[in-house]
Amino acid sequence: MSLSKEIVIDKMEVLENGCVQVRQATKIIEDDKVLSTSYHRWVVVPGQDYSAECDKVKAICQATHTEEVINAYQAMLEAQRNI
């Protein structure tokens, strides 16, 4: 009997406003059979420091968090504060 734990980033989505949604799956595996899976989710917003993220998340953020996207996101937040 072999019991192991596997943690992987299994889903990333980029929203229209540039936010990157990340899902991490933690799987408990026994003899190649998944016994349980749990998920942890978080969001990386444009302009946020993502230097501590894994390489996959960093690559998506680098590609999508352009200066234009960051400025548009900040403008959206400012507009929401003024409502």
Describe this structure in words.
There is one protein chain. The chain has helices spanning 55-64, 67-81, and strands spanning 3-14, 20-30, 33-44. The protein has one domain. The protein is of the alpha+beta class.
What distinguishing features does this structure have?
alpha+beta, elongated
Instruction: Strand order, main sheet: write it out.
Output: 1-2-3
| Count of strand segments | 3
State the end-to-end distance.
Answer: 59 Å
**By helix and strand content, what is the structural category?**
alpha+beta
Given the C-alpha coordinates, what overall shape results?
elongated
Portion in helices: 25-40%
Compute the average pLDDT: 96
Cα Rg: 17 Å
- Tell me which oligomeric state these chains represent: single chain
| Overall structural domain count | 1
- What summary fits the major beta sheet? 3 strands, antiparallel
Query: What letter string, H or E per element, gives the SSE order?
Result: EEEHH
Content of β-strand: 35-45%
Poorly predicted regions: none
Q: Number of helix segments?
A: 2
